[in-house]
Write a structure and sequence with these properties.
About 40% of the residues lie in helices and about 15% in strands. Helix 1 packs across helix 8 and helix 9 (about 275-285) packs across helix 11. It is built from 11 helices and 13 strands. The chain has about 350 residues and is of the alpha/beta class. The chain binds uridine-diphosphate-N-acetylglucosamine (UD1). Uridine-diphosphate-N-acetylglucosamine (UD1) binds near residues 128, 181, 182, 218 and 233.
């Protein structure tokens, strides 16, 4: 029998790509989303890619009764939880919005899963939990550090909530995937990142500048202690990242976990500087992009990249898509949005 995966937040950037990969791997998916941070573009794109209507429930995971009702209506073999706010800067000025939404939606989901007899839970965590690392690359055993933003803190807190819940309730199993910097779009250009307002993240800002929506890209800081003075990150292709979820769900559903709670880094293992990424984009797109150096952005760390060995060993996953293809997909998506 087909297994069913619930994807709260499945109409967003990562959730929509994960939904496509799950369906293409033979899973049934139910998307639940309150559409608070997206429109229907990605949901419609998902349906077009997979060639059918994907079950969709418009609901808020902060509504405990609605979450319970959802778990009564369907049997879920796994949940991949994306229903959270994610803007680092906004979380500094509106911390309560982040704590109440991100924590409550997660605990409501866990309680309903528990009441329904248990479930496999996959939590979308972030490399932000490592703070400014001292050793490179970071492994899952690298120390977590004090969060620099309420957003980052909710990631740490939800990891802890999952760990404590799995330890207390034998019917729950958990995996946390710590994403590095997800970029790019589906090769169909039908789904991708849809930032609201001015993008905070690098690649959407680059593509919006390239298409003419923004005047010039600020490269924040050229005096970091790196080879070219700009920050180093581990940019992971969104489709590769989505495939890691399928591997993790399969591991949980097939009862292959070695511990009831596991953590995996999801990155390429390759550090890339902001300038290297920018130059690659210019080469791949053929666009003459306006950019300039600007002062460092508050809160940015100098460098971080993953050791993804554990994911390769235990999940059988590794990043495969070439950077040029990833950047071309981000550019194709921006052009698709602009109707070009
Ligand atoms: C941030 C979050 C991370 C989250 C990720 C989503 C923290 C500390 N980081 O990562 O948790 O998963 O977003 O993708 O919470 N840059 C520019 N110009 C720009 C935008 C960015 O030069 O207009 C530079 C930044 O200074 C940084 C790099 O590009 O060095 C990457 O920035 P960004 O895409 O915002 O991601 P992070 O801050 O690394």
């Amino acid at each position: 029998m087909k297994k069913t995966v619930l994807v709260p937040g499945g109409a967003g950037y990562i959730g929509s790509h994960v939904t496509v990969e799950l369906i293409e791997s033979g899973y049934d998916v139910v998307i639940a989303d309150n559409m608070s941070n997206c429109d229907e573009t990605n949901y419609r794109g998902v349906c077009q890619i997979v060639g059918r209507e994907v079950p969709f429930v418009k609901m808020d995971f902060c509504d405990a009764e609605a979450v319970k009702a959802l778990f009564k209506k369907y049997h879920f073999d796994a949940v991949i939880h994306f229903a959270a706010f994610k803007a680092v800067g906004e979380s500094m000025t509106e911390p309560l919005k982040y704590y109440s939404n991100n924590i409550l939606s997660f605990t409501n989901m866990l309680q309903a899963a528990l009441d329904a007899g248990g479930c496999n839970i996959l939590f979308s965590s972030s490399a932000t939990v490592y703070g400014e690392p001292e050793k490179f690359p970071v492994t899952e055993a690298s120390p977590r550090q004090d969060a620099t933003s309420p957003y980052g803190n909710t990631k740490k807190m939800c990891e802890d909530i999952l760990f404590d819940s799995v330890r207390a309730y034998p019917t729950l199993k958990g995996i946390a995937l710590r994403y590095f910097n997800p970029i790019g779009a589906h090769p169909s250009a039908l789904i991708g990142e849809l930032p609201r307002g001015v993008p905070n993240n690098l690649v959407p800002f680059i593509t919006q500048t390239a298409i003419g929506k923004r005047e010039s890209l600020s490269v924040f800081g050229n005096d970091y202690p790196t080879s070219d003075g700009t920050c180093l990150r581990d940019f992971i292709d969104i489709v590769d990242l989505a495939k890691a979820h399928v591997c993790a769900v399969r591991r949980m559903i097939e009862g292959k976990m070695e511990q009831d709670y596991e953590i995996y880094n999801i990155g390429t293992g390759r550090p890339l500087s902001v300038m290297e990424l920018l130059n690659s984009f210019i080469r791949v797109s053929g666009v003459k992009l306006n950019w300039h150096f600007a002062p460092r952005r508050a809160g940015d760390i100098t460098a971080i990249w993953a050791d993804p060995t554990l994911a390769q060993q235990k999940l059988g996953w590794k990043a495969e898509r070439k950077l040029d293809d990833t950047l071309a997909s981000a550019w194709a998506w921006e052009k698709h949005l602009a109707g070009k």
